[in-house]
Amino acid sequence: MQVTKEKDRLVVPNRPVIPFIEGDGIGKEITPHVRRIVDAAVDRSYSGKRKITWQEVLAGEKAFNEVGTWLPVETLEAFRTHLIGIKGPLTTPVGEGIRSLNVALRQELDLYVCLRPVRWFKGVATPLLHPDKVRVAIFRENTEDIYAGIEWAAGTPELKKVLTFLREEMSVTKIRFPETSSLGVKPVSVEGTERLVRAAIQYALQHRLPSVTLVHKGNIMKFTEGGFKKWGYALAEREFPDHTFTEHTFNRVKEERGLEAAVEAYNRAVTSGKVFIKDVIADAFLQNTLLKPEEYSVIATLNLNGDYISDQLAAMVGGIGIAPGANINYQTGHAIFEATHGTAPDIVGAGKANPCSMLLSGVMMLEYMGWEEAGGRITASLESLFSQGYATADLARFMEEGKELSTSEFSSKVIENL
Ligand code: ATP
Questions:
Q1: Whether the model pTM is above 0.90
Q2: Is residue 341 in contact with ligand 1, taking CB distance under 6 Å?
């Protein structure tokens, strides 16, 4: 049975087919355990009424060795058909005309949101005094910005052409060293911004979260990052007037009727369950995440900012090795859940691979499917194990009373604790 999308709703049958990519390197070691744990959690939650039918699809080295291509069309077709899938880490082929398999998958399915939830697990070593205050969901725009890959290398004929255009037709005189500069293009659109910000606001409403923060560098890049901020606010005010209260409105009330009236309007809005939409410049945001992380809940940001922010926040809770991620198109319903780390060639075969990044992305998948109970069981099991010091080597060695387990020992303990 297929997962399908009907209007605004995902329709998930009780026995959905879910394609999975095993992944390269430690992918082979973690993926079977992730499936085993997810199956056990589903079984325990729904007493056999629901069950995932896993369908392996090929990508990466395994695909290359078996069928001679890194990303077979059948794999893309399976994700297209079944809407939802999960993948282990993939090696990037060198010189095969594909920049990265991950990027290719995202582009093919137009997965415009990169969602990275960040939270702390009690017991996991962290550089913060109060890591429990960090609980955010980062919505990173996944298709635009300088990641579009439109750039020209210094000294090439293409660059000269662009430079001539800029100088002669656009009167650009500000390039400091034109003869030796490379140039890149940063596209940021109304549609791209709106679909990302819309997804972030809907997520906040669904999860009853207090705020969405637009993180940008609009003070410097007025039309691209500044556009993101402007279009983000406009979308909130146009599409969610009854469910949001924006910093814009706060400032307008303050100007017209004074601070007290603005604070009163804000309090009224938040107590009635409205989501507060605010913005912050990216550098101030990074400082604030360390100084007052409790002020942030859902983050909506552009592609490059999102890259830095995701890793910084994950590192703050000691979770860089276990951070899950998903690439989602909320309009079509397509979503690929994935481990955020690489193939870790240095520990392949040593039984040391930590399955938690992929496992927690499996939890995100279960939540996306509406199978929250199964996802919740896995999260609770991990909370309990980490707080007792049980973990794979990468985490156990930094825990105060860490008890190191192999990949399969740890996975079995997760199942025992479900
Ligand atoms: P790739 O080239 O595929 O990106 P990499 O080794 O350069 O691989 P990562 O795979 O992210 O990058 O690994 C960085 C470090 O983190 C390595 O030392 C690796 O052993 C460790 N590591 C990454 N993922 C895990 C994991 N799931 N469990 C344990 N250690 C991990």
A1: yes
A2: yes
